[in-house]
Amino acid sequence: MDMFIIRGGRALAGEVTVSGAKNAALPIMAASLAVDGPCRLRNVPDLVDVRTLSTLLRELGMSVTRDKNGDLVLSTSNDSPFVAEYEQVRRMRASICVLGPLLGRRKRACVSLPGGCNIGHRPIDLHLKGLAALGADIRVERGYVVAEAERLKGADVYLGGPFGSTVTGTCNVMSAAVFAEGTTTIEAAACEPEVVDLGHFLNSMGANISGLGTPFLRIAGVERLTGTEHTVIPDRIEAATLMMAAAITGGDITLDSVRADHMTAVIEKLREIGVTIDVDGQRMRVRCLQELSPTDCIALPYPGIPTDVQAQLTALLSTVPGISIVTDKVFPDRFMHVSELLRMGAQIRREGNNSIVSSSSQLSGASVMASDLRASAALILAALAADGESVVRRIYHLDRGYERLEDKLRQLGADVRRVNDEPSNVPASLLPQEESGETPLQPPHFTRTSQVTRASTEDSPG
Length: 462
Fold this sequence. Notes:
Elements: E1 2-7, E2 13-17, H1 22-31, E3 35-36, E4 39-42, H2 48-59, E5 62-66, E6 72-76, E7 83-84, H3 86-89, H4 99-106, E8 108-112, H5 125-133, E9 137-141, E10 144-148, E11 156-158, E12 160-161, E13 164-165, H6 167-177, E14 183-187, H7 193-204, E15 208-210, E16 216-220, E17 225-226, E18 229-231, H8 236-249, E19 252-256, H9 264-273, E20 276-280, E21 283-287, E22 296-299, H10 310-317, E23 323-328, H11 337-343, E24 347-351, E25 354-358, E26 367-369, H12 373-385, E27 389-393, H13 396-401, H14 405-411, E28 415-420, H15 451-458
Parallel strand pairs: 2-19, 3-17, 4-18, 7-8, 11-14, 22-23, 26-27
Antiparallel strand pairs: 1-27, 1-28, 4-6, 5-6, 8-10, 9-10, 12-13, 14-16, 15-16, 19-21, 20-21, 23-25, 24-25
Helix pairs in contact: 1-2, 1-7, 4-6, 5-6, 6-7, 8-10, 8-12, 10-12
């Protein structure tokens, strides 16, 4: 297992290219199960999640290869398998996206209930409700979703949930409905750019989907889909993470291959707190030329601030003078990064789905542990700004969703090293002093209950 050792205090500078979007690539790869003929996908990032889904697709009878140009080439060699086993599906939640294409093309699907990051309750009831509305016989047996339908029928489907539309649910229902007899309408469809990218991919293969980018989709069923070539959109979450890395270090960076039109809420929020952002086509310059200001921000479904940047925003705002409030209305329990930021000197107090973030004069290097994909990115941002060295463990979470992030940060001047997670690799400054031959480390003495202590207690599990 690997970990990062990061020495903070360096202002990032330079230029780096943003990778393709994980959250677009995965449902598009899954949808290739429904195609007659090969598909060539460009700009697919080389991630653990992509490799995991590639393995699952091969088990479902597909050939998945990367050519010398880095393109992913997918084609069906055997269209009889329909069981997505637990061993692969448990590794990531996006594996559930094979359910709709399998049902639509192969008439039946047996898919393990999904795993993924521990960021709160994420049921798939809306997926099942939508597919059942199309005429599928749905049941859950021994941890698997079993779905069958000799011929799907067009229907009116509503996909609104208590915290907004379901992204993967929209992908599943859309991928199945392209084969339904008649016309399907999806109301309260997810509007995220990744869902739109999947729709463009399906349309390029012969599907008939209109209304992409709006909450109301209309899908006229077709008999078959044919092979195509498609370029995956840039990753707006990676771009936002790098933008905040520039802001938290007082840097000046340029991002290439960015879709600013997919990031309006993030760009406006960063400008509001004082970050200078200049957009020129698919290039974006991000500079921190002044002291930043506190703000209140709410994570919402698109086009709002993505829940996938909530943790990174929390890390950034923990270095900003004043009091900020961060609210997550998509995953209200997605605050496991807070307890680790407290270890670095952040002053954060949880109240329900809110984090109240007070200014910290200086974050300090510490040993911290990532709990999920975006939490790992938040801890890295904090470490880039911290005084001294930090160790970030469990970065296997990071490798699921960021392509060579440490290389990109080093390209911008950061001091980041990937090493084996072994005691001998931990910097001496982060070891108890008796282990480094110095005076034994004594616990701090408190004359009163501090805000940090109270926040730590509130965030303890159970």
